[in-house]
Amino acid sequence: MSEPTAQEAGHPVFPAPPQQQEMPLAVVKGQPVLQMPQDLYIPPDALEVFLEAFEGPLDLLLYLIRRQNLDILDIPVAEITRQYVDYIGVMQDLRFELAAEYLVMAAILAEIKSRMLLPRPPAEEGHEADPRAELVRRLQEYERFKKAAEDLDQLDRLDRDTALAAAHVPDRSVAKVPPPVDLREMLLALREVLKRAELYTHHAIRREALSVRQRMGEVLSRLSDRQFHGFETLFTPEEGRLGVVVTFLSILELAKEQLIEIVQEAPLAPIYVKSLAAAANDDEGEPALPEPTSDGADAPND
Amino acid sequence: MDPNLIRHIVEAALLAAPQPQTLAQLAGLFPEDEQAPPGAIEQAIAELREGCADRGVELVEVASGFRFQVKAEVHAWVARLWTERQAKYTRATLETLALIAYRQPITRGEIEQIRGVAVNTNTIKQLEEREWIRVVGHRDVPGKPALFGTTKAFLDYFGLKSLDELPPLAELKDIPELEPQLPFDITPPGIASATLSHDEAGEEHAAPEQTQ
Amino acid sequence: MDPNLIRHIVEAALLAAPQPQTLAQLAGLFPEDEQAPPGAIEQAIAELREGCADRGVELVEVASGFRFQVKAEVHAWVARLWTERQAKYTRATLETLALIAYRQPITRGEIEQIRGVAVNTNTIKQLEEREWIRVVGHRDVPGKPALFGTTKAFLDYFGLKSLDELPPLAELKDIPELEPQLPFDITPPGIASATLSHDEAGEEHAAPEQTQ
Lengths: 302, 212, 212
Prior knowledge:
The complex is a heterotrimer, with 1 copy of chain A and 2 copies of chain B. Chain A is mostly helical. Chain A is about 45% helix and about 5% strand. In chain A, the strands form 2 sheets. Chain A has a 3-stranded antiparallel β-sheet, with helices on one face. Chain B has helices spanning about 5-15, 25, 40-50, 70-80, 90-105, 110-115, 120-130, 150-155, 170-175, 180, 190-195; strands at about 55-60, 65-70, 85, 105, 135-140, 145-150. Chain B has 2 domains: about 5-80, Winged helix-like DNA-binding domain superfamily/Winged helix DNA-binding domain (Arc Repressor Mutant, subunit A), CATH 1.10.10.10; about 90-200, Winged helix-like DNA-binding domain superfamily/Winged helix DNA-binding domain (Arc Repressor Mutant, subunit A). By secondary structure, chain B is α+β, with helices and mostly antiparallel strands. Chain B is rod-shaped, with a radius of gyration of 29 Å. In chain B, the strands form 2 sheets. In chain B, strands 4-6-5 form a 3-stranded antiparallel β-sheet. The interface between A and B is large, with 76 and 94 residues.
């Protein structure tokens, strides 16, 4: 028996919990330890503190391994088990669900211990995993995230390390954004109108050069001061021949619709144009508009 | 104590505090054993105020203390943080807009004549507020009705150089394949008139005879 | 459009907005017909960032966009504005959060498996109420346990642009007392190997004693 487990054959060699001493709460391998907790032996009256100080049995085991150099192999299983069972009575007043996990850990340790003590069947020699492997893996895994939690806590975070900068906004009125309109939507709406218009009216809307319509509005705007303007001044030669023609057509159309007046005092004399549709009522806005119904009756000469 | 540090502290505190801060409150940020020298906070405030010349916020003093606030000149943009999308335009609005685009200059009465229903005042106002239509004059008939035309903003919005780029009316009638591509509901022609009456809440039906 | 005006608008908007703003959101402050030129907002951000060198605040980018925040070096003073506001988080909360952050999506059972203790319902609730974590799905196993992931608010709170910026997860550390005796080079058969291979995926099957 040269197995490492053989070394522990003589236990329990662990000293009893040192309740006779005042400060050290436990003694590990003969060394009194002042910090809480010292090893798996938890004095019942310290149990509550103990449970709060550690995040669970893995945390405790890690602590013991890293700080106390506890050899997991050197755990007196029988003693631990006996003590844990004793705790059950104490824990009834405490958070039992937390304590249960420590009991589970004790069971795991006991199981490891017992598996290591048992002789292995020769056939499985070399195949059976070390019973501690799973525990070690879990300890390592837990340690990573314990460290990650500490790193996370070190990050600059709002409220603790920084604060949002904000300026006052004197006017919090909500801006209204008009809806988007698809050109095709508008065209389709128009088509519907035209379909209905054909039902209601005898005159269909003719195809028109829209640039003339646009120019009509522009000419009217330029004439909005109700003054006579030189006929030539309405043209912009830079637009080229087509632009001149469009302007000319729009003037003819405006004249036909009696929206402008064209004056020539004598043959070959200068021609003047004046708006009959001047924006005289512009400033008066809505109230100046006639009733919609009478308005509708106003334009039969279309 | 470094005046720059004091200025940084005052600036950060004014930007972090939910309320305006008085000089006394600002002085209270410094621990007793490391008070800001007398006048240092006033000095920091003065410097911060000047430093706002080329910034989007300004440091102002109000009844309850000092605060940074958004400058009025950029408010129009900042206000868009709290935007509210208006509801989609109704069919009535789109029809009115289309008629103004294709038949300008046109009066409201003429639009009503073609549509067969009265045009809600809000419809016109909506389009005017969007600056897509404007009054280009008044027809010289009794009542002097306003003549509406479209604007450059209208052309810009739809990416048109001129109205000529709108499809001709004749073409419009012959493009049924337009329909399947449209993302919105197309009312089947059969029930179109019935549905249209619900388009706009305040829209009264004009008697069809009126348009003859 | 004047670059200074754009910078003022961006600065004012970032200080006026209750949340960090993305480049797209900032671009949305400009109306359709007067968009900021391409790259202008990025330029404004860069200038504002530089302009913070001699100020008490800084412009940072976090997961949900850009924001101004108090510089860490003056925060100690600014923090006196609030008497007791700094929530301290317990180790249980931080460990749970770290597991969700690094191992998401992860179930509560998987967290418990790694931590070796039950996760308090309040811990999860607290993290959910802070909107640092959320349920991102359910694992397709009996009981359909919820899978948790972190949110943008979590990244924002910790001043991170993405999960990539989390501190790297530590390497597995050797357990010195045990390691030399452990035959890790021998492939452990049976349950042990199955469990070990699930190292990264989060393990469902624990030792039977572990599960509640």
